[in-house]
TrEMBL record:
Top-level EC class as recorded in UniProt: ligase
PANTHER family on file: CHROMOSOME 28 C12ORF29 HOMOLOG, RNA LIGASE 1
Protein name: RNA ligase 1
Gene: RLIG1
EC number(s) given by UniProt: 6.5.1.3
Keyword terms: ATP-binding, Ligase, Nucleotide-binding, RNA repair
Pfam families (alphabetical): RLIG1
Annotated InterPro entries: RLIG1 (IPR041211)
Keyword Ligase: yes
Cofactor or coenzyme needed: Mg(2+); Mn(2+)
């Protein structure tokens, strides 16, 4: 989906991004100054500081559907960790968050990020972004093993995952908040080939419309995300030490400066 947000991000909730959700201010209202996170079963992540060292760290939303006893224990745990708010740090060897950890390198403090090219809004770019540039932001994890992989990234043999900062994309032709207009926009507009929209209101409220609210299907065969070409910007020559041969950063470095017609066309030289 697409997304729109103001600078910074609150840790309480995480909303979806371009590939999943479109974020836009409500008509006539000011843009939200802080992004909020809406976690409803997807695989989200956010960068916060970890420990006294101040090293940027990727935290993942802890989504659970426990029984009553487990839920009580979990609430007690959160109470004892008042600042975590249900976020857990993504450790390198944690199998539960292996796809999260595949898009971050703590040694070099970088992450694999998908966003618009700075010089060409019609072009997507995959690059290694310093974690320090992502502090206090929330992001969306997409890829082979996430939510049915609606963007056709990678394969089971060679999984591919990326992070998208929430608010990295915005809608240009926004529909009105009327049922028929929304339905027509999702069904007939090129930009409407997304999962949903979130409007940010000046009072902090969020107005969320999902394709399912209108009786429309998701995932869909041809998403708006896959209508744009994408270029790889992965120059890692500035890093003194070599990357692990099996990591995504190394694979992307082998196709640096290559351009693909769509995200699903990306083939890594594994």
């Amino acid at each position: 989906m697409l997304s729109w947000r103001g600078p910074g991000a609150v840790r309480k909730r995480a909303f979806h991004s371009y590939c999943l959700w479109t974020h836009h201010e409500a008509p006539g209202l000011g843009a939200a100054e802080n992004a909020v996170c809406v976690c409803d079963g997807g695989e989200r992540g956010a960068f916060h500081q970890k420990g006294a060292s101040g090293q940027p760290y990727l935290w993942a939303r802890l989504d659970r559907k426990p029984n009553k006893l487990a839920e009580k224990r979990f609430k007690n745990f959160l109470h004892s960790k008042q600042n975590s708010k249900g976020w857990v740090p993504v450790e390198k060897n944690n199998k539960q968050y292996c796809w999260h950890s595949s898009v971050v390198n703590y040694e070099f403090e970088i992450a694999l990020v998908l966003r618009h090219h700075s010089d060409d809004p019609g072009l997507l770019e995959i690059s290694a972004v310093p974690l320090s540039d992502l502090l206090e932001q929330t992001l969306e994890l997409i890829g082979t093993n996430i939510n049915g992989n609606p963007y056709g990234l990678g394969s089971k043999k060679h999984p591919l995952h990326l992070l998208i900062p929430h608010g990295a994309f915005q809608i240009r032709n926004l529909p009105t908040l009327k049922h028929n207009d929304l339905l027509s926009w999702f069904e007939g507009c090129r930009e409407g080939k997304i999962e949903g929209i979130v409007w940010h209101c000046s009072d902090g409220c969020l107005i969320k419309v999902h394709r399912h609210h209108l009786g429309l299907c998701w995932p869909i065969p041809d998403t708006y995300m896959n209508s744009k070409p994408v270029i790889i910007n992965m120059n890692l020559n500035n890093y003194v030490y070599a990357f692990d041969a099996k990591c995504l950063f190394n694979h992307f470095s082998k196709i640096d400066n290559q351009k693909f017609g769509r995200l699903k066309d990306i083939i890594l030289n594994v």
